[in-house]
Design a protein that fits this description.
The chain is built from 16 helices and 50 strands. It is an alpha+beta fold and 890 residues long. Bound molecules: 2-acetamido-2-deoxy-beta-D-glucopyranose (9 copies). Keywords: Hydrolase, Protease, Serine protease, Signal.
Amino acid sequence: MNLRFLVGTLVVSGSLAADYLAHTYLVEFANDHNIESFYHGLELENIKFSPRLNMTYHLFRGASFELVDGASNSSLSNIISKMPTVKSLWPVGTHKVPIDTVNSTIPLLARREIQKRADGNDTFSTHVMTQVDKLRAKGITGKGARVAVVDSGIDYNHPALGGCFGQGCLVGYGWNVLGELRPGSPQPVNDPIDPCLGHGTHVAGIIAAQPNPFGFTGAAPGVTLGAYRTSTCAGIVYEDVLVAAINRAYDDGSNIINLSLDLPSDWSEHPAALAAQRIVEKGVPVVAAIGNDGERGLWTSVIPAVAHGVAGVANFFNTETPAIHVVASYSVDNATAQPFSWQAGNPAMPNISLPLWSTSFDAAPDDGCGQLPAGAPDLSKVVVLVQDEDKSSDCRIDNKLSNLGSHGAKYVLVYSLDAYTRALTQSNQYVNGIGMVPNSRGKEWINLLKAGHKIVVNLVIPGAAQQTVYSPKNTETGGLMSTRSSWGMSWELDVKPQIGAPGQNILSTWLLSKGGYRIDSGTSMASPFVAAVYALIAEARKTFDPATLESFVSATANPNLYYDGTKVYSIVAPVVQQGAGLIQAYDAAFATTLLNVSSLAFNDTDHFVAQHGFTIKNLGSGEVTYTLSHVKAATVYASGASYLSDPQSFSLAPTPLETVDAWASLIFSTTSVKVGPGASATISVTASPPAASIDKGRLPVYSGYIAINSTSGESLSLPYAGVATSMKSVPVLTTRSSVTYLTSWDSLNIGLSVPLPENTTFTIPVPTGDPNGTENPDPGLALPTAIFGQNVGSAFIRLDIVPLEVNGTLATTEVLGVTIAGSAERYPIRWYPGRGSTMDPFRGMLSDGRVVPEGRYKFLMRALKVFGDPENKDDYDALELPAFFLKYQG
Ligand SMILES: *[C@@H]1O[C@H](CO)[C@@H](O)[C@H](O)[C@H]1NC(C)=O
Ligand SMILES: *[C@@H]1O[C@H](CO)[C@@H](O)[C@H](O)[C@H]1NC(C)=O
Ligand SMILES: *[C@@H]1O[C@H](CO)[C@@H](O)[C@H](O)[C@H]1NC(C)=O
Ligand SMILES: *[C@@H]1O[C@H](CO)[C@@H](O)[C@H](O)[C@H]1NC(C)=O
Ligand SMILES: *[C@@H]1O[C@H](CO)[C@@H](O)[C@H](O)[C@H]1NC(C)=O
Ligand SMILES: *[C@@H]1O[C@H](CO)[C@@H](O)[C@H](O)[C@H]1NC(C)=O
Ligand SMILES: *[C@@H]1O[C@H](CO)[C@@H](O)[C@H](O)[C@H]1NC(C)=O
Ligand SMILES: *[C@@H]1O[C@H](CO)[C@@H](O)[C@H](O)[C@H]1NC(C)=O
Ligand SMILES: *[C@@H]1O[C@H](CO)[C@@H](O)[C@H](O)[C@H]1NC(C)=O
């Protein structure tokens, strides 16, 4: 078992759980309180702290701080949360910048002129697939919009990102919020440079890259960028820094805020989500990456994208798969050299001019792995051409390189099995240089060699060579959803994501010190694309109103067919995967119809919303007739097993998800409506949930679109989604004995945890007040440890210690009908994301700092079901573990 002890709140396995920073809290002040009155209150309570951020923003006044010692963080946080200066107190979550990297950076030793594409129209594939090219052809560039990139900073020295920072520059404003955490750090707070990660620099280029030698621009090169550095060099974002950054971006007059980062949780109550929601409510659109965990199945969306009002962005494959190539030349039989391009690997090639020699003239999967053919030359004096690995064979790239290296080869060019190339690496020092060419190039050479011609290749070290973008069409998945893109909805069944944009295989700017350009992938790349399109539409429509912009992009987007990673279905992809579909910028900017909503939430069976109304407004100058119809999307089961018939096996399944032929049915008040210029019509929709034959126990999620076609030639759609089960019936906790059991902390830490039987005796040290004891118990201690597996999210989880026999005195209380000693340290937990498991060692100390006497106890976990009432004990899923004896050493 692979365990992580996540400091601060939970121990979880798997990556889909909130991480928290030890001892660290974020507070929002009540009423007119301020940092002085708050810290004064802490001093009066004798609470020792170290201040982090002072947050004095229009929409958020508060502070973050670290508790430096004390009896128990849980008991201190209970005291602090009740202080009159405090409106809300949260532990500080840590986010990660979601990077799904295609590694193709070439370190540039020297910069040479790079090949230019023909000037003229915008032909960048991501712009063509989203109609950005059509807006650009009209001269629309997002002029005047201030777009904040809350990320790792921006390398504004990059010539394609303006080359400077400050008024008049492309990166016109910003702040290093991370720098505020470390007064006197070498990075000044007023300098939002991206010093190390590159992520924000890539995001910035997607929005606003200026013309450059790689022949592309950002989607909205007319905007002014704001750079807010919030992430460390390791891509970590602390939630207090994020709350500060988005508020600063708002206060600095940003018109649009992009957040390509995540906290893995599907609840919209986290402080960063609430902060984003407040900003949207004040009229500034916030656009956020929905997450890259789609392969783990439904309910993998993240904070802040799941926040109410925030536009959560899904990720589509680029229709091309670009790679950065270096230019070289070859000659056949001493004829004039001709150029070709190849993708550098690691190690890169030196400057060489050597004959090309191929291990085989046939396409053979084991090419390069066996004996050399008779008459093979001295391999150190040639460049060896070998076929890429074929998945049907054990002869992998590493085997080829190792075998060829052992025969003296120094330089190897691999030709791919298709049109694409990638950056190869070797796991050991087999050869001195590797590179890759596409299949067509390899095949042409093989044919020449087979015919007896002599080929000499002249390679220049990549850092000094001319570079070019090699961008073959993606004929397999271009334009489809990326299976990595996280699925909605939120646990409160908000429709998520909102919209999709190209994010898979995206060329953009990168740190100058690391080559300046790079191909990267993920919803991190899709989100800034939408932010840029918002700026374009805002220029065309003269509004930044979040609901209006979202309505236009949603209604005009192109829903695509469902691709589950294995095949393309003939039905459109679920709304909870693609949102409204692939964004169509021109249609959104010039649509003459406005819907007053951008999606409809049908909720679950207990809260099923059967009646919906929406209005269609005709913004055009003539009368238009609208025709309504229903387009079904694929219905998917979230689990492979039913919680009704097989609760032990119920769990959220990874993709590909099983589909079922059952859909909601919709009846419209009218299927055809005439609307005069400037007038509106209200349509009512009566929905019925999918037929009874659907297996409710497998958590089915259904969705679809209301198609609205107009006689003026518009084809709009309104997405809807719902869940065909009662969320309150879904068990939060799993009874599977492999994931829910009593064990010992020391055995867990050496990966040998076994379920322990009733009445196991744990003899442990008397707990001390050291907060590190709470956050990081000594891994060698045999502490009783509760492991509870979770299926779905829970807004409120208690882990209580129930006394059975006690040697001494112990005050008990009754909570939700059960007599308990108190809660385990760190409990209760709010807004638990679901999936994975909590793993809690018990040191004998309760969350209020009291130490229990020796005795016989048991763990009782109670998790509030989705839509449950926290005051009603029947709305909790409760599980207890076998009783144990607790004894203290000495
Ligand atoms: C916090 O910020 C406010 C406003 O900028 C300032 O007046 C105050 O002195 C700051 N307090 C601390 C403790 O830094
Ligand atoms: C990308 O390449 C750099 C430099 O070679 C290397 O340090 C890094 O580990 C690579 N990252 C991935 C994800 O392969
Ligand atoms: C650019 O696009 C416009 C409109 O689509 C077209 O008329 C024109 O021929 C294109 N120009 C070039 C150089 O492709
Ligand atoms: C190419 O040139 C080299 C040296 O000038 C010569 O030895 C060789 O025969 C030539 N090869 C062909 C195929 O003409
Ligand atoms: C679904 O219903 C529950 C219970 O009324 C409510 O709390 C939740 O906000 C609803 N979800 C949506 C998206 O309306
Ligand atoms: C609406 O337009 C779309 C796209 O043109 C078309 O596929 C669909 O059949 C139309 N629906 C109706 C009811 O006309
Ligand atoms: C555990 O100990 C209690 C007494 O402390 C006893 O009543 C119970 O039967 C024991 N359980 C087992 C399984 O031995
Ligand atoms: C807690 O652990 C951290 C990291 O190991 C250490 O820096 C800190 O001094 C410890 N605090 C106490 C109170 O022991
Ligand atoms: C209570 O203490 C007695 C005497 O030390 C011991 O025999 C007994 O096992 C203890 N009971 C529990 C529940 O710890």
